[in-house]
Every structure is written in C-alpha cells, then in structure tokens.
UniProtKB/TrEMBL annotation:
This is GTPase IMAP family member 5. InterPro entries: G_AIG1, GIMA/IAN/Toc, P-loop_NTPase. Residues 179-200 are annotated as: Disordered. One of its GO terms (molecular function) is GTP binding. It comes from the Eukaryota. Belongs to the TRAFAC class TrmE-Era-EngA-EngB-Septin-like GTPase superfamily. AIG1/Toc34/Toc159-like paraseptin GTPase family. IAN subfamily. The keyword GTP-binding applies. PANTHER family: GTPASE IMAP FAMILY MEMBER 4-LIKE-RELATED (PTHR10903:SF186), GTPASE, IMAP FAMILY MEMBER-RELATED (PTHR10903). The keyword Nucleotide-binding applies. Keywords: GTP-binding, Nucleotide-binding. Residues 2-200 form the AIG1-type G domain.
C-alpha cells in the first residue's frame, strides 16, 4: 500500500469541513450539519483506505472560534515538522464572499505559515449550488479584479470543488491527482492544478 497521507480540513464554522471529511472517507465519520455554532469542538482524526492509499482525515473546529485557533495552529505546525505527508484543505462555501470568509482565510494562512500554505488547496464546498455554472465561471464572475480571483491567487491557483451531497468518489480521486498525491499514467491536469508548486 502507498505511504499514508494526512489531510487536514480548515475553515470557519459552516464551511463544510466535516462534510468534506466524510466525502473523502466515503462514510459518515464526522458529525455534519448546517450551524452557526461549531459542531466540531475538538481536533479529531479518522483513517480510511482508498485508491490503494491509507488516508487520515483531520477535522478541526471553526477557525474563528478564538479558543481553538492556537490549538489548531500548534497541531498544523507539529504536523509540518513531522515526517508525515500532508495536505491542508482550506474550505470555502460556494456563495457570496463575506468579511467573515476573508477573516477565516487570513486566520488559516496565519496558522499554516508559508510552508503550510505551499501544501494547501482552497476547497470550495457546496458544488451542487452551482447547478450548470462551472467553478471557474463562479470564481471569475466579477472578472480578474473580483475578490475570489485574489483568494485563488493566494493559493497559487490551487483549488478544487466538492459536492458533499454526491457520493461520486471521482471528486476525491481528482483532488489527490491534482495535488500530486495519486499518480496515474497520462492523466491530464484538471483545472485548479499548479504543477510548479511541490506539495511534498
């Protein structure tokens, strides 16, 4: 079996972290519901096997819950100092980009630091809400001067979309492919791939 990978989900309360963790694992391991209060109140880790790879998924409390921010930052930095291969997913729900979203992204970048950011992807959740619109059309709806293109640029163009209401495992496979954690012969680069940035 391929060496393990640890995926850490970061974001504000209600951004779809727990649901995304369940999507990655293919089973309901994390409690997930729409809420203004953080359903996740501690850092929790679950492990599964998919695509011949052992994957540990780490769910975290909302980044804007100040009592947890330092603990989340310490966990991320400890992980970066370890020998574990890791991928950080900063979640952002599809919809209007708010001041709270910006604050959560800023906090995520603070807890990750420069090294962690290079191993991070911006994960848009709520893919079902786009209906017939592509993610790229949504991101660039206001042109290059909009807020979302700037956010994507902060991640050097590394982004992905999950529809957590779907059980299609291809969205997980594509994330692992574009992030360089799954190798397939002659696999074209999906949108949101930044090959110049090594993730490990």
């Amino acid at each position: 079996m391929d060496p393990g990978l640890t995926i850490v989900l970061l974001g504000k309360t209600g951004a779809g972290k727990s649901a995304s963790g369940n999507t990655i694992l293919g089973r309901p391991e994390f409690r997930s519901k729409m809420s203004f209060r953080s359903v996740t109140t501690e850092i929790s880790e679950r492990t599964g096997s998919m695509f011949g790879k052992e994957i540990s998924v780490v769910d975290t409390p909302g980044l804007l819950d100040s009592e947890f921010t330092e603990k989340i930052g310490d966990f991320c930095q400890d992980l970066l100092r370890s020998s574990r291969r890791c991928l950080f997913l900063v979640t952002l729900r599809v919809g209007r980009f708010t001041k709270e979203d910006q604050e959560a992204l800023t906090t995520a970048m603070d807890v990750l630091g420069g090294r962690g950011l290079k191993k991070s992807y911006l994960l848009f959740t709520g893919g079902d809400e786009l209906e017939d619109e592509s993610l790229e059309d949504f991101i660039f709806a206001e042109g290059d001067e909009g807020q979302l293109p700037n956010v994507v640029q902060m991640f050097d163009g590394r982004y992905h979309l999950f529809d957590n209401k779907s059980d299609d495992e291809e969205q997980v496979r594509n994330l692992l492919l574009k992030s360089g954690h799954l190798k397939t012969e002659d696999q074209p680069d999906p949108p949101g791939t930044a090959r110049s940035n090594a993730l490990y």
